[in-house]
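pinging the channel bc i need a second pair of eyes. not urgent but kinda urgent?? the chain im working w is below, pasted from the shared doc
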Amino acid sequence: MSRNKYAEIGKQLQDARQKKGWTVEDVHLKTQISKRYIMALEAGAEDDLPGEYYVQSIISQYAALVGMDPKRFNKDKEPKSVAEWREEHRPVANRIERDEVRQRPSVLMGLIRQVPWLMAMALVLVIWLLVWGLTSGMSGNAQIKADPKTVVVDHTAKKNVKSVNGKTVKPVDTSDQTDVSENGGNVDDLQVKLGSKVKTASLKVNTTDANSWIMLIDTKKIDAPVWQGSVPAKSSKSFDLEKGHSYTLQVGNVKVTELTINNKSVPNNPKDNQIRNIKLQVK
């Protein structure tokens, strides 16, 4: 995309923003796009913008916010991996294609037809499991067992120590654990609570069968992102989140991206969006 093309698109977005009476700060707060990128795009300053893949996502978000059709700007610049994914997952268009899908033989049926004795062995195994289950249940019923849910609490101890079937159960130590929860039921506004022994939270980005891209911003250092760039397919990228800091995480190609924090899965957003903005508060 040429410098003049950025200038033309930036001017259209700027005009649309001004018609709504919004400032650059308003667009930044609504989209979490860096203010310097918004100003660079409106000015057509290509040297101050990130890679073309990320610029396309900025244009799409900005256009959608001001009520313009994002496809008029970046449909032809769609990443190849995303275009291939859409082609593979597009709905069946006509009756001929639907019939072809229905007529494809399954792997299981192919094995049964080629190896008849395989089904016979499977049937014998099922019968054996049923007989074993019945006999185990009968022998188990003959024994009298104490209720494993019986809990005895010793109120004389300094701490609330519990005993189950005569065995002492120590209180759960959460000092080395991490809890990821939603603020107000919003899956894109998360609170990360670290135990007293945990100093940092490890954010891990995993991709499946296509490329993705991310931008991680520490709100205390908003002038420059912690990291931004593309994450190749079937790979991962990790970052340390500091306790007491808040972050903004922008994820592209959401459907092929999986996020974890200290091995805890980040909740998925049920909305079918290609781009996701997540707020992270580390405490």
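so The domain at 178-282 is CATH 2.60.40 (Immunoglobulin-like). and Confidence is low (pLDDT under 50) at residues 75-80. — does that match what u expected or am i reading it wrong
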